[in-house]
Amino acid sequence: MNYDFIVVGHGLAGAILAETLRSRGNKVLVIDEPKENSASRVAAGLLNPVAGKRFAKSWLVDTLVPAADAFYDALEARYGRELFFHKPIYKIFSTIEEQNTWMAKSAGSNWSDYIEATYTQTINQPGVDDPFGGIMIKRGGFLHVFAMLDMLTEDLLQQKLLLPERFDMSQLQLTETGVNYKTITSKHLVFCEGYQVVNNPYFAWLPLQPTKGEVLEVQTAQNLSPECIYNKAVYVVPEGGGRFIVGATYDWRNPNEETTPQGADELSERFRQILPQEFKVTGHWAGIRPAVRDRRPLVGTHPNYKQLSVFNGMGSKGVLMAPYLASHFADALAGQSELMPEIHISRYFSLYYDYIKHQNLQL
After folding, report:
1. Average pLDDT across the chain, whole number
2. Which pLDDT tens digit goes with each residue over 79-90?
3. CB 195 within 8 A of CB 290
4. Closest CA to 115 of 96, 134, 99
5. Residue 358, C-beta contacts closer than 8 angstroms, at least 6 positions apart
6. For 5-20, what is each residue's pLDDT tens digit?
7. Most buried pick, 68, 206, 207, 318, via CB within 10 A?
8. Which structural domain range is residue 220 located in?
9. Buried b vs exposed e over 86-111: b needs ≥16 C-beta within 10 Å?
10. Is residue 336 part of a domain?
11. What pTM value is reported for the model?
12. Over 90: is that where the pLDDT of 361 sits?
């Protein structure tokens, strides 16, 4: 069988890239081993246009948010099901100092596209502990990532465009015109493996840091159904009927997929600091996200093997970043534009040459 692209990995990044390439008329084969606790499947699916403690607009936000909205809207129209839930994010000030930091940061700047309101005292929402107020962020929300992946996976299976198996690197052959994999021929192959790229002999030199994140599902005794997402150290995402997703922890020292009592305790305490009321834990998951030290994705074609590329490293920002970057990368792969330097793996080519030198010394 002949394809234009093989996409290895069908988490959030791989699924969105494969869908984008297919929408442009390319014949795409996806190879992915089904895995319930992949980082994408346990993620809360947050889209937040304002970055954490720094009180800064997320990188390229004016471009990324409209592209994400358009992509998820198109999927919802196709499947007749709501996947992305537009909700404001109430970022609660932890201290008066944090409130002052925001007031100084926002003075004289135009935040009207992303900040609905600033509160310097509690907004008196039932059950919410916010004595110092906070900011209400608009144009945010959350994606039901697992539901999107399930529907796209079913589509691929029905069209026989998915191999549900672990990619076997020993079966990959590079040719002058592309790649061969088992009995399959393709012009190009893109690795979208998340943190597992650290074991990829072609891209192991990339500075990706596997980072473990744990997430809880909790059920409150009161049937709370707030109209916003809460953020203070963690995100608290309302799923309705008093059910919330709470996450996530960050642990780069122990990047495994095991849940821990420490993770459950940390998330439970963080939840109590936002909603101090009775609850029980009804779910606990862990996944490993692909973080990059400069907080920019890793996208581009291999410096020596032009039939191989990588699309990775979006960390916790995949819901926001992936739709636009997939389209941008598809343009570059078609020769219609150049990749923006901020995401291009060429910024780390020096690491590749060091890696090759080290490999040669070991031979």
Report:
1. 94
2. 999 999 999 999
3. yes
4. 134
5. none
6. 999 999 999 999 999 9
7. 318
8. 209-292
9. ebbbbbbbbeeebbeebeeeeeeeeb
10. yes
11. 0.95
12. no
